[in-house]
Write a structure and sequence with these properties.
single chain; mainly beta; Maltoporin, Chain A; 14-stranded antiparallel β-sheet; 2 helices; globular
Length: about 500
């Protein structure tokens, strides 16, 4: 009789069948395999997929990123990817390829979310422990996605303001399919149709989508993509205030839907099935975007918001580089973005900045992020992130002029020469964190220790114009002079 069990050496024994017999057979271990890690990526992403401008971030990497107040946040992890900017420090603002924070579609198991902020925007509403996968699309959007100009954040889980109300209806339909052209070329082609009815006005559009991939070798491919996107809601943002004072408003019979066209070209390489490397270039136009008119503010409630805004256009272009490692004990990524984003409001009667081009609020020339995590054992892992970015823009009165207010000479009026005329200092920060895991009866408990802004960089959180008293003015009088002041966050250790 032969006895065999997986992981043990086979043993042959003789059995006497002339009587009842009980046998205890002892086997010796043999051919014990080391732990095998099986990984897979969505077929549409990566070197061999047709989809470009898309990144899949493993949940294990998201959980390892040092967390503000010890709270793992999906959106803040995605802010570290190339092509994505965070906006105001510490908040979950999300700016993709020169677009605004309203131009991102967040899907939770296919259901769109319109407000992802929690605790005033310091955290997002997503529970990292319940998430199975996170995919960010920045361009070349498949036809199944629509209603936003700049990005789609597709999150899968394991378990479970205007003057008056405006009634509106939206209809969506799409068709897409993959096509093989020979053995090396594959394409995804599709059409997305959307329609929106509001105040007796019927808006509709047919939006073409196309992505194509050409395999040069088994590990190297070139990709190109084009997408048109329409959006029927706006986020009205006051560029002169870098605080969460934004208002959601719908399209109306006076304010038309936003439209974007984006083209992208990239090269993708897989290095020994360990590291994925990519470089992408993109160019995007945006029409019918809105901003407050010069001098207008959301604080004035005497006029409707449609009378406070102007409609214009914008464009953005840039280059993104990414090196990502998702397997092994040491994982992470290095991402770099060179980008430029401008706005132009020159329609008659709707001029902003005297009808001249000005930079977008979060126009930044350089963005660099380094994310590294290491798994020491099943009980301990640690991680670090370092980010650097050029300063973004603000609109500040950098000069004063005197005027005769009430019979007195007053120097309180500021002169603003252009929109977003001030460039903030460069931003950089190092965060470190360590996690201790302990298995319990009903799951795993994790203790996190994170240090935010390790070397205490004095990054500006809010900049405003103030006065500094002391010293003599050019006219010989003792008085004050106008200076720029800032509010900054300090470094902190968080448990």
């Amino acid at each position: 009789m032969k006895r065999t069990v997986v992981g043990y050496a086979q043993k042959t024994i003789k059995v006497d069948l002339s009587k009842d017999t009980i046998l205890n057979v002892f086997l010796t271990k043999n051919n014990v395999l080391q732990e095998v890690v099986v990984t897979a990526s969505p077929l549409e992403i990566g070197v061999k997929g047709t989809q470009m401008s898309a990144i899949n971030v493993p949940v294990t990497q998201i959980k390892a990123v040092p967390a503000l107040l010890g709270e793992t946040d999906v959106i803040k992890a995605l802010q570290l990817l190339p092509g994505v900017q965070a906006g105001t420090e510490g908040f979950t603002g999300f700016y993709v390829r020169g677009g605004g924070p309203d131009e991102n579609l967040f899907l939770l198991d296919g259901v769109p979310l319109y407000d992802i902020n929690h605790l005033g925007g310091f955290f997002s509403v997503f529970n990292a422990d319940a998430i199975k996968s996170v995919t960010l699309y920045k361009g070349g959007f498949p036809a199944r996605f629509g209603s936003r100009l700049s990005s789609v954040v597709d999150i899968r889980i394991d378990t479970v303001v205007g003057d008056k109300n405006i009634s509106s209806y939206e209809m969506i339909g799409y068709a897409e399919d993959n096509f093989n052209i020979g053995s090396h070329i594959k394409a995804n082609l599709g059409l997305h149709y959307s329609a929106f009815s509001v105040q007796g006005k019927f808006y509709h559009s047919l939006q073409p989508r196309a992505s194509i991939r050409a395999m040069l070798t088994d590990n190297l491919s070139l990709k190109a993509g084009y997408s048109q996107m329409n959006q029927y809601i706006h986020l009205l943002s006051n560029n002169s205030i870098s605080l969460p004072t934004d208002l959601w408003v719908p399209v109306t019979k006076r304010i038309e839907p936003m439209i974007s066209h984006q083209v992208a070209l990239g090269a993708f390489y897989n290095l020994k099935n360990i590291v994925d490397l990519s470089v992408e270039g993109y160019y995007k136009t945006m029409d019918n975007i809105i901003e407050y008119k010069d001098g207008a503010t959301f604080l004035n409630i005497n006029t409707g918001w449609e009378d406070k805004v102007s409609t214009g256009r914008g464009w953005a272009y840039g280059v993104e580089l990414l090196a990502q490692k998702t397997i092994g004990k040491t994982t992470g990524w290095i991402g770099y973005t060179w980008a430029k984003s401008d706005r132009l409001f020159d329609r008659p009667g709707q001029e902003i900045n005297f009808g001249k081009v000005f930079p977008a609020k979060y126009d930044r020339r350089h963005d660099l992020s380094v994310v590294v995590s290491h798994k020491v054992s099943e009980k301990i892992d640690f991680a670090g992130t370092w980010v650097y970015s050029s300063g973004d823009c603000a609109t500040l009165g950098l000069q004063n002029y005197a005027y005769d207010g009430f019979g007195l000479l007053n120097e309180g009026l500021s002169y603003i020469d252009s929109r977003n005329n001030y460039r903030k200092p460069a931003y950089h920060r190092l965060d470190l964190g360590i996690n201790f895991h302990r298995k319990k009866k009903h799951g795993t408990a994790t203790w996190n220790i994170s240090v935010y802004n390790v070397y205490n960089r004095n990054n500006p959180f809010f900049i405003y114009a103030g006065e500094k008293w002391g010293g003599y003015l050019p006219n010989g009088e003792y008085g004050s002079k106008k200076v720029l002041k800032q509010i900054s966050k300090e470094s902190m250790m968080l448990l």
